[in-house]
Structure formats: structure tokens, C-alpha cells
């Protein structure tokens, strides 16, 4: 289903990418404060080509702040942010895009009332003709969008329909196809499976794997450890703005990941309390001694 | 594809072109005709010597809507009288009757020596005028409220009865032989304008039709009058109720290919030119300058000499005064200064 | 009939709550529904109905010169309704549009008259002022993030006050002086306010400009990058920003386009009537907005067309003059207009729901 001709169209960046000496994107002790509120603190993260880095965490753990920094919507206030080994500070998403960092947001991916093909090329439209009469190359855009979507297994017989009429999974896939097409080297996916059912989630996970196989670095943000474990190579769990866990796939089992994700030590403490209540099965919950976090969380940070 | 916008700097090109064009235009062109240079300077309305009576404060509170030429002339008259009589004039206005009442209350609170007020909606001002009476502040009326000023306990009144003006207009139309006229109301629901049309209808022996137009949009006024002339080709006179609308009606007559003539209520300097040129037949003037002037002067006379203009019984009528080809030359000089 | 044919059997939508046709996939949009999804269809049908109605009810309207008259008034609304509509598609409103027209005309008139310059100097200066007002609106909006309703209400009041105060300070009156005898007036009138004969009917040049601007706006909106951005910033500002659309540039330039329209209509009024009343224009902004909404633009942004507002303005002019041509009591005009506006909004709502229904 994949073929190698795709993904290279807009990729002026392919040849500028260094040979894997540096991670594509790296955070070193990065953090972000909004006034007095510290939303993120001391986070290390690295994204390498052909690898899926999963960022897990509960609501308010700092996941969205993290992606906003990497995608150029916000700037970090502490630590370092490196792309290809060089420190950067993006002031607009356009700058991040120009570095090959594309973000697919859960809610923000598309403009619902606009046709599929316009959404696909939004912000990077194909044009033809000299300046005063430079115009959209609609034919070519429609054709290209159709090809790319077919490559992703989505066949629409009307690219003019508003993208709002597509299902949630289809919209995510259009957004992923679009990022891949535009030569993204790093793909940030913000909770792509959150609003989806089981089967549609499977499709989205398949595209994540496809993107990885094409050599993209993927940052997969989710709160579902099962989805993460299916495609992830490295797992970072955020809690209260700091890293609770950072482990390679070989160092962590799904069960451990689930436990960390589910609240880790807090849940273990809860186990004793719940044990007093009849009808709550606490057998499977972990004991505190079972949990060893490779990256220890510092107790400071936001409260 | 084509992801970056390399062409952005080219947007500067048209900007530069515009700037260059502007520079050229400025360098080359001052107008050889018209403009301020062609206008002779004139005095500031009628001015007499200055009285040596002690200074008094008079509040003039009108229902002027912003941007109405008419009220400008009223104010100029009031200012001229104030300068002559050693009066400090405080002018305020609001078209909303409730707000106007608040402005009067404001004047009472400031303990002014006299209040001149327009009575566009007499009922709304009733209670606040009672307070003025209680506070011993003399109040005179002007412009509108001809039938109510005495009931409200005002000293005197200076103005034109809109109905009387309308009636006079109708009689004048009879004289010039009109058969079918359309009365153009530029502010739907305005009492004074409606009275003018009603008065006209009362005395005019031919057919009278009413036409509402959107007074804040001149092209729309033009189109609507054109449409009316088209709809009824028997119309031989267009009566506009405000000075700025008469020249527009003249354009409409041309557009519609109609033979109708144009006459109007109120006057300004462009109108005097149009009357001289024969584009507009006549204008009926209520002499707003006189209303403002007499209101202030009347309060001054009452304060310093105990006089009642109109004897406290009858209103002092400032109109209708007709301006047509026979007397326009005498009037135009003052109209150019914005005092007539 | 399913609209999507997935290659993988595994790909089916999630079990949807509530009743759903077939397996929950989108149904194919029939040609009728696709046609209805076009923003100008509702108003086009409305225009046809109202036109036929008035042609029957008002015999004088069958005359071609009557149509020229209706088109003239429609054009002065329509030229402003175009940029107002584009701005609305871009997700904003401009309440200062009505008085901005008068501001522009006053600027040109007073500058030329007071300095006794060629009127073109005033015309160019007025363009600069109008664009600056638009730029201020857009810049202030983007800087503060306040609703455009509030920002432009402020500008509306400011301009209204400035129009009056400056005019009175400079001319001593509330209207400007007659500039018709000044140099350059004739050329400017030829450009902004002349008329020509076509098939025995005097046609106003504003109608030609209206059509030219509408064609240009339609082309820009549907065929250029900038047009794409207009839809995007109105449809979902944050998404647009995230994919690299220059949101601030797009919105500010849209306000400047409204400034351009205000300039053009202002120049028409100046060279058509020789003088300008400083109190005019108040309330016109709502008529422009109404023409855009009747023309199928969505007040919340992201949806609309350039052709729709043309019909919207025409509808407006036709109803206003149609009542006169029919010889009806004109007191009812506003009520009729209100009913029409509500009707147009209902049609738009229905069309939007039909078009985006899954």
C-alpha cells in the first residue's frame, strides 16, 4: 500500500537531514511556565527517525504544553530544545513546519466547512501563473490529494465535500496523509485515537506504523497505554508536568506501563483504601514495591 | 509544494507605485478654480456691540441629531446674541427625549440664569420643566413645541409652526400651478417632517403623495425619488423637507426624464446657488438663526428689563419665509456664511 | 450508496450513538444537495421569486431604465457588501463600514477644498486614510483578541465623532463645501460617478465597477491562495494558524479591503453629489452586513461567496425600489426587509445543515 514515490514531493528537507548522529528533535531539561504556574519542568525527550516516541499522561499532565513547544505555538522557558542537534526557539508554527515538524491536532486538524482538497493543501497551496494572476492549481491539487489519500487507503468520490462530513478517523487520516505528503520528518500526533472507536483507532495506529516505516520520527501523544504499546519504541509518562517514566520498549512491559499511566504510586496507595470496601477487586493493582521508575520524578513542579 | 512565500516582497511594488503617484499629484497640482482660495472671507454673522449688563449663563438644549446643518445655524444665532448680550452660552443636544430631559436637569443643577429648550416631545420634558419653574429659572421655547409651550409654563416661544409652514408651502404650490406633488420624508416617523407634509396636503389643491427615503444614504435617496417619478409620471413638483435633499431630487428628476420641478423646506448656501441657477424653484425658510438669536436675546431682555416677547401670550413666528428667484440674491450672501 | 469505499475491510466507523442510516458512513451527496451547498443558491432563488413578484405587481418596473435605477442603488450597497462579505467569511464584522464611507468622502473633499489642491490629491489622501482605518481595525483586533463587534463599534463611534467634529472645525458647517468647480473634478467624476448610454438607457458607472469588483472578488476567493486563507481563518482560526496560514496578515488585509470599498463608495458619493453631509452613513454598516448575510455568508465565518452578496445587494435595492414602483405604502419597507432577512438566514441555516449533515 505504501510506495516510495510518496512522501518525497515536498521534501526539500530530506537531503538536509543529518545521518542520525543527532536525534531529529531533542528536549533537555525543558520546561514552561505561564507566569507563576509551571506547566512543564525538566523534561528530556528525543525523537529519532523511524521510531515512535509515545508521550503518555493523564489530563493536565503537561502533554499539550509539550507539543505546543515542539510545534512552535509556545516557547519553552527553561532547558534546551534542539532540532538536528542545534538549539532552536520557534516563534510560529510555520517555522516548525519549515524544519519538517508537523503537528496533527485532535481538534484543530482541519477547517470543517472547507472541502477536503482545500484542507489537504491549506497553508501550502499549489499555485500556477505569474504574480498578479497567480492562482491555485486546483486540478493538480485535487489529483494529488486523491492519490495521497488512496495511498492511505481512503477513497473519496467527492473531494469537494466539506471535511466536516468525514468521520473522525478519516479526518485524522487526512491530516496524517497531509503531513506525510508535505515532507514532515517529525510527526506530532495529539491524541489521534482519543475520540475514536476500536476499529478506527486500529486504522490510525496502522498509519502511525506506516509513517514510522517511511523513516519519520513520530511523537504519539495518548492516554491509552494499549494503543501506545502497539506501535511505540520509547515511552515517556508525564505526571504533573514532570517525567514520571522514560523507558525504551525493551525496558518496560505493557503491564508496568499501564500501572505507571494509571497513576502509579498513587494507585498503589489507593489499593489499601479500596481493599476496605467490599466489591472492589484490588487483586490486580500493583504494590508500591513493584514500581521502579527509571526516571525519577521530582516532587516540585506544579501542585 | 510552493510552501514558502518567496513572492512576499513583491507586494511592495504597488505600494511604491501609489506613493509615487501621490507624490506626483501633490507636486503638480493645486486647483486653479474653486476651493477655499476662491471663497471670499466674510464676517462672523451679524454682530452688534456688547452689552455691559452683568454676565448671565444660558443653557440651550435642543434635540439636534449629530450632523444636521439646520441646528448649526440655530446655534450660530444663539452665539451671536450671547456675544452681544454678555451671555455665557452652554449648548447641549440629544435627539432622544429622555436624554434631552437629563440635559435640562443638568442645566438646572448648574443653576443657570435661563434655559432655552426645543420641545420635540413635550411630554418627556414636562416634569423637568416643572423643576426649572420651581427653581425659579426662566425657560423659553424654540423651534418645536408651538402648541405646548404655554401649557408647560414657558415664558415665550420662537419658532415656526411646522403645520403652518406646510400650509404656506401648499398655498405657494397652488400659486405656481402645481397639480401633483410628492412630499419626500427623509426620516421616517419624525413628527416635524410629518407635520410639514400634512400641512402641505391640507392647503394644496392637487394630489399629494408621501415618499419615505433613507436620509443617511444619498444614493438611495436619489434612486428612490427616481423610482417614484417613474412610477407616477404625472408628478410635476417634488417637495423635499431638508436642504441637502433638494439637489439630489434635481438629479433624480434628470435621471427619470421627468418634467417635475423641485422645491424645498429649509435653506443652505448650495440651495441659494441652485435657486439662482433656476434648478430649484423656491425654498421655505424658518430662519433658524433668528430662533437661536431671539431665544437668547429674549431671556436677556426678561432678566434685565422684564420683557415678554409675544406678550407671553402669542408665539413669535420666525417663518415661513419664502426664498425664490425674486429675493435670492439678497439672501445668498448670508447663506454663504452659514447664518441663513 | 456509500460515499467512501475503503480499501481495508477493517476500516469502519465507530458504532455511532443514536439512529443512523446504513452503516454510519456518509451517504453520497446527491447533485441537488451539492447544488444546495453552494452559498449563493438560496439568495438566487429568493431574487428570482421577488423579481417575478414585482414585475407582476409593479408595471413601471418592467421598464429597462427602472432596472438601471434599481441596479444603481444596489451597486452602491453592493460595492461595500463585497469586502464586508469577504471579511465575514474571514470570521469578522466591521461596524465602522458605514461611517468609514463618509470619512473617506469628507477627507477627500475637505483636503482638496481647504488647500485648494487638485481634487485627485484629496482622492489619494482619502484612500490612504481609509486603508489606515482598516489597518487599525485589523491590527487592534489581532493585538487585543477582543471580539470584532466591540472593536469596530469603538471605531464606528470614533469615526462618527471625528466626521462631525473635524468637519465643523474646518468648514464651520456640518457639510463640506461644493468642490464641483475645482480642477480634476471632471476626471474624477468620470471615474467614480459618470453614466453612459446602453441601449437607450442611462447606466451608472458604479454598476460596471460593481460587476468588475464582484468578478475579482469571486476569483480571489475561489482561485487564489489568499481566498483559501480567508475561508480558513474564518472557519477555524487556530487550525489555520497551526498549518501555517498567516492569520494576522489575512485578517488585517481584509479590514483594509473594507477600507478600499469605503473609499470607492465615498468617492462616488462625493463626485456624485459634490458635497458631503458629515452625519450620513450611520446605519449603513448594517445594510452591508445584511446584504452579505442575505447573500449566504455565515456570520460565524468560514462560509459564503462573493456572488451571493451581489444578489443580496440586488435583493435589497429591488425590494426598496420595488415598493415605490408598486406604489405601495412605503411605511412597510423596513418590516418587509426584516422578514426577508430572517427568511434568508433560515434558508442559510437549512442549507448549511443539509450540506454538512453526515
Automatic annotation (TrEMBL), chain A:
SMART domains: AAA. Residues 25-265 form the ABC transporter domain. Keywords: ATP-binding, Nucleotide-binding, Sugar transport, Transport. Residues 1-21, 283-303 are annotated as: Disordered. One of its GO terms (molecular function) is ATP binding. This is Simple sugar transport system ATP-binding protein. It comes from Streptomyces prasinopilosus. The lineage of its organism: Bacteria, Bacillati, Actinomycetota, Actinomycetes, Kitasatosporales.
Automatic annotation (TrEMBL), chain B:
Keywords: Signal, Sugar transport, Transport. Residues 30-50 are annotated as: Disordered. InterPro entries: Bact_Solute-Bind_Prot2 (IPR050555), Peripla_BP_I (IPR028082), SBP_2_dom (IPR025997). The keyword NAD does not apply. One of its GO terms (cellular component) is outer membrane-bounded periplasmic space. It is found in: Cell envelope. Residues 1-27 form the signal peptide. The keyword Signal applies. One of its GO terms (molecular function) is carbohydrate binding. Residues 59-301 form the Periplasmic binding protein domain. Its main location: other. SUPFAM superfamilies: Periplasmic binding protein-like I. Belongs to the bacterial solute-binding protein 2 family. PANTHER family: ABC TRANSPORTER PERIPLASMIC-BINDING PROTEIN YPHF, D-XYLOSE-BINDING PERIPLASMIC PROTEIN. This is Simple sugar transport system substrate-binding protein.
